[in-house]
Amino acid sequence: MGRLRDKIVLVTGAAGAIGSATTDAIVEAGGIAITTDLGSSAGMDHVLDVTSQEDWLRVIAEIERAAERLHGLVNAAGIAAVGSVEDTDLATWRRVMAVNLDGTFLGCKHAMPLLKRQGGAIVNLSSVSGLVGGHNLAAYNASKGGVRLLTKSVALYGARLTPQVRCNSVHPAFLEGPMIDGIAAQTGHPDGAKARMTREVPLGRLGTPAEVAELVVYLLSDEALFVTGAEFAIDGGLTAR
């Protein structure tokens, strides 16, 4: 119960599978989760379009007024698109980059003033697709690879601060939930696509959002005070090949 006792953590994409599981895990660990997502998502503490700098400034200002501090940020908002470099149109490319990479950048940038008051931790959700390429994931690969190296830059900056702010990236492989269902549906053969994804995982199954959330809680906690700038693959052994 005490791993995140009294720590206030902002979660983006909290209506999604990973974001929702992370919120539950934070609360179970004794923390206080501030949930954000788009306006169409019910039950969120704040409406936040992660691609909007104005939204970020408003939400951070509201947290500062209400709590005066912030101990953690989880950038879990993200979208996926299937398409090769030839198939992907510019609008899709820009949308994927805006949500996955720009949104993570804006979160790190605008949460930093509150985080550095007492020190804290940022966890950026990248993907196994930020570590290895796929022939039909041009935009998604590029965005998640960008999150990986942005994380390292933020970590090096945060290490120079007093108090320090840690930053790490988490790289899940295929997880049960709506995102993988959406990716599979874009192939036109969803059942076959999911079966192929499962076969690619050495452990022989898809992961769960709850398993990712437990890793996120560890990285937010004081147990990980010597961990920053690192990338954590949670992929059933996929990248070991």
Task: Give an overview in words.
With 241 residues, the protein is of the alpha/beta class. The mean pLDDT is 96. Strand 4, helix 3 (90-118) and strand 5 form a beta-alpha-beta unit. It has a 7-stranded parallel β-sheet with strand order 3-2-1-4-5-6-7, with helices on both faces. It has 7 helices and 7 strands; from the N terminus they run E-H-E-E-H-E-H-E-H-E-H-H-H-E. The chain starts with 7 loop residues before the first strand and ends in a 7-residue tail after the last strand. It has helices spanning 17-28, 53-67, 90-118, 138-159, 178-186, 190-200, 209-220; strands at residues 8-11, 32-37, 46-47, 72-75, 120-125, 165-172, 231-234. It is globular, with a radius of gyration of 17 Å.
Let me know the number of strands.
Answer: 7
Terminus-to-terminus distance? 37 Å
Q: How big a fraction of the residues is strand?
A: 5-15%
Q: Would you identify the regions where 5 or more consecutive residues have pLDDT less than 50?
A: none
Helix content: 40-55%
In the sheet with the most strands, the strands line up as 3-2-1-4-5-6-7
Tally of helical runs: 7
Order of helices and strands: EHEEHEHEHEHHHE
Taking all Cα atoms into account, the compactness measure Rg is 17 Å
How would you state the average pLDDT, rounded? 96
Structural class: alpha/beta
Shape estimate? globular
- Biggest β-sheet, characterized? 7 strands, parallel
